[in-house]
Automatic annotation (TrEMBL):
PANTHER family: 3,4-DIHYDROXY-2-BUTANONE 4-PHOSPHATE SYNTHASE (PTHR21327:SF18), GTP CYCLOHYDROLASE II-RELATED (PTHR21327). The lineage of its organism: Eukaryota, Sar, Alveolata, Ciliophora, Intramacronucleata. Coiled coil: none annotated. The keyword GTP-binding applies. This is GTP cyclohydrolase II domain-containing protein. GO terms for biological process: riboflavin biosynthetic process.
Length: 196
């Protein structure tokens, strides 16, 4: 069973957060995280972001997606309003970084973000958000606002006992590279995007 393996404060440019690592085994090198802003009251409605890992976007500032900017915007929002970022080790919509780089290589040849995954024999989106729900339950969070544009994340809360108060949009302006990626998100995955 997944549980809290460790917890510590981390001072950041946005403020102080408390970082929890979750895994089944303490030896797991890729635990999921809950990153909790100061002044977050778990007994009130809690602002929450489910965020899937994106090494290219978050660490190397790739312009192919908007993940890094979304993570920064979410941290800023949580620092100002209280809340929790649940950081899921679901790199590349859960196909892993090696497969994501293979998918990017196919995208260089003209396949789009969905076609490239399918061409590799992988699902367009291999995630489910049950782990995030499990983390909310471990933290005893009952009622949330979810920062997302992704309808699947909203659906994942149905019949879980977690109450969704509001969806809070987290929309980033497109750049010259990622516009078609964002259009595909909207048209294929049904993301609630208003700027594309
Ligand atoms: N396979 C694949 N994964 C990608 C690609 N571009 C971004 N990703 C991954 O897509 C995921 C995006 O996750 P999130 O930031 O949680 O966002 P989301 O599901 O779009 O929903 P929001 O909550 O609206 O941001 C990350 O795991 C990225 O690594 C791509 O072209 N191919
Ligand atoms: Zn990304």
């Amino acid at each position: 069973m997944m549980k809290i393996q460790a917890q510590s404060n981390i001072p950041t440019d946005f403020g102080i957060f408390s970082m929890y690592a979750f895994s089944e085994e303490a030896s797991d090198w890729n635990p999921h995280f809950a990153v909790v802003a100061e002044n977050t009251d778990f007994n009130e409605t809690v602002n929450v972001r489910f965020h899937s890992e994106c090494i290219t976007g978050e660490i190397f500032h790739s312009k192919k997606c908007e993940c890094g900017q979304q993570l920064d915007a979410a941290m800023k929002f949580m620092a100002e309003n209280g809340g929790v970022i649940i950081y899921l080790r679901q790199e590349g919509r859960n196909i892993g970084i090696i497969n994501k780089l293979k998918a990017y290589a196919l995208q260089e040849k003209g396949f789009d973000t969905v076609e490239a995954n399918l061409k590799l024999g992988l699902p367009a989106d291999g995630r489910n958000f049950d782990i995030a729900v499990e983390i909310l339950k471990i933290l005893k969070i009952q009622k949330i606002n979810l920062l997302t544009n992704n309808p699947d994340k909203l659906k994942s809360l149905e019949n879980t006992g977690i109450i969704l108060d509001r969806r809070l949009p987290l929309e980033i302006d497109s750049n010259e590279v990622n516009e078609s990626y964002l259009v595909k998100k909207k048209d294929y995955f049904g993301h609630l995007l208003e700027k594309v």
